[in-house]
Amino acid sequence: MLLPANMLRDLPANDLHTVIAHEFAHLRRNDFVKNLVYEWLSLPVSYHPLLWRTRERLMETREMVCDEMVAAVSGRDEYAHSLLRLASLLVEDMPIRTPHAIGIFDANTLERRLMRLTEKKKEIRGVGRLAMAAACVLLTAGTCVSAVALATNIDGMVATAGDSPKAKTPHIVPASEMSGYVLTKVPPVYPVEAKKARIQGKVVLNAIIGKDGTVENLTVVSGPNELQQSAQDAVRQLTYKPFLVDGDPVEVKTTINVIYRLAN
């Protein structure tokens, strides 16, 4: 550690102790080795302004950590006063061209360091601590309740929208009533093989009738297999008058029966 020659003669013992203790803190943290490694790693981007800013912040933080280590031993106020006296010696007694050889001022952030050392840290105790803890608990509980309520409301909105009968659910109409809405129909073709085998009977179909009266979907419920395709082909050609609910056309779900009977 280098000191100006005249400082050893005029420097009080406490201030000399401050200088040495601060540098010992750097030694204990291996800051000199770390700084050498940082500089070596940053060589490829040494031109970048962001690196310059990062280097300044690292240096400032490093000095503040060492300040805290020394202040914990010698006292915060005494250490801060010692820093001020050292700074005044460097400003008043040294020529302007003389470089500062004391590492304690490397970061050039003396004002912020002194403010950090002399700031009053008020510790909350007793009733104040309990009140703050209670407020935090209430805030957390309120946030959780609000989140649950919001999720419930959203779920309810989705369920309500999905349950709209006009929007998605077809209106169910009995076959006897829906037969009165038929506009055009084509008689089913009796399959030749079914005739030869003397197969007859009724094919029952579930149908979805669109808003425009056309058959949109068919599902076989029952009936002889040999007659089912013929029944579906005939029903798909049916057209209906639109079924109105409150004056608006709606989709209809109904049953359609196709009867096959052989002549005697």
Low-confidence stretches: 95-102, 152-167
How confident overall, as mean pLDDT? 77
By secondary-structure content and strand pairing, the structural class works out as alpha+beta
Question: Number of domains in the coordinates?
Answer: 2
Helix content: 40-55%
Question: How large is the count of helical segments?
Answer: 10
What is the string of SSEs from the N terminus onward?
HHHHHHHEHEHEEHEEEE
**Termini gap:** 126 Å
Q: Strand-residue fraction?
A: 5-15%
Give the CA-based shape: rod-shaped
Strand order of the largest sheet: 1-8-3-4
Q: Any idea what the radius of gyration is? A: 46 Å
Mind explaining what this structure looks like?
This protein is of the alpha+beta class. 55% of the residues lie in helices and 15% in strands. It has 10 helices and 8 strands. A hairpin with a 5-residue loop joins strand 3 (201-209) and strand 4 (215-222). The protein is rod-shaped and about 140 Å long. The N and C termini lie far apart (126 Å).
